[in-house]
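Handoff note, outgoing to incoming analyst
You'll be picking up this chain. Sequence as last confirmed:
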Amino acid sequence: MVTVLKYVSQIRDIGQTQIGKHTGSSKQTVQKWFKGEKPIPSKYQEALEALFGFKVDFLGMELTKERKTFVLEREIERIKHSNEE
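Most recent structure output, in case you need it:
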């Protein structure tokens, strides 16, 4: 299973170690989040939202077509905004 967290981190080129440092979690915990083996506790959502630059309530869920579209739309917005600056 590919989770939304894994997908977002891949397109942003943000590794598990960086996510672990940003959230204060171990690499093993982040690996379990990536695989969908362990839910992402709500206390880490804010740190992940800050890291990725948008709110995503379904980071630990399976990547579906709809969720992929949502993420890609946010990435397009982020890129447009960064090009305007």
